[in-house]
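Posting for a labmate who doesn't have an account.
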Amino acid sequence: MDLNKVMLIGRVTKEPEVRTLQTGQAVASFSVATNRQWTDASGQKQEKAEFHNIVAWRKLAEIVQSYVKKGMKIYIEGRMETRSWEDPQGQKKYRTEIVCDNMIMLDSKGGSGSAQGSAATPKPVVAGDAPNPAVNTPDEEISIEDIPF
């Protein structure tokens, strides 16, 4: 049996870039940094940051575009893929990415119009999730309770 599963908790390092392919599919690309701290043999604290390239597709890409911002703490779940291409000089290039299947935004939503002032429990956003179009009509105001995560 094989397993290709990645789970990360880190901070978004730059604003996501979202584009639409010729097929009409949305794709979002962004980076997440994870930090590791340890004490070395001499007793000195050490820290290292690792940067991960994240790709989200379709509805999840649209959600990333609307809600994910630089500096946010985020949980990412997906699989690793390496793609290759040739640059204009004929050199073979490689890029390893995490294809996101699920994400949870971990930062609180304070000041978002919530009368209670407390953050709601984060809910996962799965790639196939889509808001119910019958919940809101275009003339209605969207409340924080209507957001699907």
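Reply:
Got it, the structure tokens are right above this. The beta strands are 6-12, 17-20, 26-39, 45-57, 73-86, 92-105, 125-126.
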